[in-house]
Amino acid sequence: MASGIREGSLQAPTRHPLDWESESFWDEEKLYAELERAYDICHGCRRCVSLCKSFPTLFDLVDESSTMEVDGVDKKDYWQVVDHCFLCDLCYMSKCPYVPPHEWNLDFPHLMLRAKAVKFRKQGASTRDKILSSTDAVGSLAGIPIVSDIVNAANRSKPIRKVLEATLGVHADATLPEYHGKTLRKRLSNHRADESAAVATAATRGKVAMFATCYGNYNAPELGEDLVAVFAHNGIPLKLAEKEQCCGMPKLELGDLEAVRKAKDANIPVLAKLVDEGWDIVAPVPSCVLMFKQELRLMFPDDAQVQKVAAAIFDPFEYLMLRHKEGLLKTDFSQSLGKISYQVACHQRVQNIGMKTRDILQLIPDTEVDTIERCSGHDGTYAVKKEFHEASMKIGRPVVNKVKQAVPDHYSSDCPMAGHQIANGLADGSKPEHPLSLLRKAYGI
Q1: Mean pLDDT across the chain, nearest whole number?
Q2: Which of 19, 23, 133, 386 has the most CB atoms in a 10 Å sphere around its CB?
Q3: How far apart (Å, rounded) are the C-alpha atoms in residues 46 and 58?
């Protein structure tokens, strides 16, 4: 081009480390300057308007300002855009033409993360946000037998939910996760892996340690059980990692970067030791895989142990497809699944692994997979907050409508929370089925 500025989207996006330990990262004046620069670029492009609430909020602020440009927006209103960002990374990975290596060097998600971090350092977090992001503490308490029954009953009670909305700011209509007294760790306490049965391939070592995740341990233990059953059927020895804390994603979304560091310090030594012992790592929740595969790697670029774990952690279906390429995935399916509406989880899409879940489900005879590449709007905590719930449901409406139109035999997402968000939108009493559960059903195991 005559101006010397390159056209966007001509090269694969690259990611710079998050420079969060520098003084300039925390400088509010520099933050506002970068927010204004980024907002101006986004305002002139507007490709990401359909992704989330952040961009429509920004464009409305600009269009309603006195100048109809970013310089007419009151800087205190910049935070409305930040608050609606849930760091899904889709704008960076799939829409924005100005990400590095483009000279404009736009990283909107990490700019939003920086703003959240500056705000958290200055103001802290509300009681609600502290509770919602403290998944291990809440899970440990709510997962106590009898207590879990009380918590689950309260979460289903409309009068109690109204009180919870008024006092804590948790929307009365938002789906809250169930808690289980018999956690995944308890269910698999006697499970052992026969390492001698491991068969390595060019890309896998053939034996797997599962990072259970706090959600998989306390809220959806059946998900981990399905993973164990599917991997065992395919001759892959699997064991639980000796221990884990929350991966840190809820704290990251809050902007509490020191809490992310603490989670890293607890988890990485355990997982790195497993890698050194010859184990691959899988986790059943896409957000947790992404946290280890990308976010920690960018936050701690000089930590060799973090980089080691990032290179050795896999999405379960990514792992199975790597085995399939070597002829090691069993296709002895005993049951077809009919029509599946499959929402592709955002935190799985941005891992750049392709649609491995869809590809494996399509191996099942007489099974049709209708993929939906739209956000459910859930994002872990965004959908349960009083001020954001309606926006989250609006974001997820196209997904819900696609499911309604398809009239499928099953609807599914690799993100269990996205599945529940879809069920909430359908409001017909139906329940989502995780792809691992569907695969197990197809195997008849």
Answers
A1: 91
A2: 133
A3: 10
